[in-house]
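User: Please fill in residues for this 317-position structure.
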């Protein structure tokens, strides 16, 4: 029972009031004074008890028995049907003569207040290749260079900005099966940089005993270039591309970028972009060798390469 905070009588107090009057023979006014309530309140609870018994001593709902202005079920269904036809609030209001505020409340209650809810997002089709080297995900993240910490770190908006500092382009790579990652920073995202980043990544994975047969990229200009296609042919790599406007197809690389931003690029206060770049190899080492990965049963990615103890010690030293 949800009793009001300032209520003098709880359910047990009302029962005691009734017992004192009916069983002990006290006058209702005397019983009311003893309970600290008015005589009118005592007579009210006695009347309810005589009509419906002890159950009537519970609090009643404050909801009115009838509401002439309540929205009818037919009108509510009409609003929902018009919304499913992708009508916006003013259109529904004109068609039903219902205020926009009421329409908003109705649609919010059924989860249709946003048009995007009419087309639920398709469930992600997760996949994982069977062995290391089956597929290498590639992507690029553009980061602004700076020669001094910005106002988000210092809190001083009056300090000088790093104007015309340029950009750093982080070319990332991640093995589909093991999630072992690699990243290097280049001055641009042109075909030459993409080709050199790919070669650097393959050399790194070769040192771990992993050789790739295919790469997956988005539809960026550098990955559509003849130079990148040529280096893929020379290295015996099959080049796959994601569907247009479907970055989730390359989700492992996208997730790696977000993790790098949170745990490396924006995780510390760096004096300048050069210091941030110098920390990247150390963060990658921690990511590959020590950081628990949720999709790998909280084991580090290096654990999926099947390296022997001697190889692990030799590579980690």
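Assistant: Residues filled in for all 317 positions:
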């Amino acid at each position: 029972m949800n009793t009001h905070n300032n209520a003098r009588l709880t359910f047990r107090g009302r029962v005691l009031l009734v017992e004192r009057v009916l069983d002990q023979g006290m006058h209702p006014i005397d019983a009311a004074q003893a309970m600290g309530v008015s005589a009118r309140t005592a007579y009210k609870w006695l009347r309810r008890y005589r009509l419906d018994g002890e159950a009537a001593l519970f609090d009643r709902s404050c909801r009115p028995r009838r509401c002439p202005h309540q929205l009818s079920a037919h009108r509510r269904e009409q609003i929902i049907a018009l919304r499913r036809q992708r009508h916006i609030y003013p259109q529904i209001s004109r068609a039903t003569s219902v205020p926009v505020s009421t329409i908003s409340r109705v649609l919010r209650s059924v989860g249709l207040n946003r048009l995007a809810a009419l087309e639920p997002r398709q469930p992600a089709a997760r996949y994982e290749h069977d062995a290391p080297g089956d597929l290498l995900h590639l992507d690029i993240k553009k980061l602004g260079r700076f020669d001094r910490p910005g106002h988000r770190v210092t809190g001083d908006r009056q300090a000088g900005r790093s104007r015309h500092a340029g950009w750093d382009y982080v070319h990332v790579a991640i093995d589909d099966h093991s999630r072992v990652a690699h990243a290097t920073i280049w001055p641009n995202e042109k075909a030459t940089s993409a080709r050199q980043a790919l070669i650097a990544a393959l050399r790194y994975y070769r040192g771990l005993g992993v050789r790739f047969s295919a790469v997956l990229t988005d539809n960026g200009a550098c990955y559509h270039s003849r130079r990148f296609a040529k280096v893929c042919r020379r290295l015996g790599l099959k080049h796959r591309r994601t569907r247009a406007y479907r970055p989730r197809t390359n989700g492992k690389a996208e997730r790696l970028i977000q993790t790098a931003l949170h745990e490396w690029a924006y995780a510390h206060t760096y004096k300048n972009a050069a210091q941030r770049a110098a920390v990247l190899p150390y963060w990658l080492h921690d990511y590959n060798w020590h950081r628990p990965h949720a999709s790998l049963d909280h084991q580090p990615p290096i654990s999926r390469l099947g390296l022997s103890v001697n190889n692990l010690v030799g590579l980690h030293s």
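For context: The mean pLDDT is 89.
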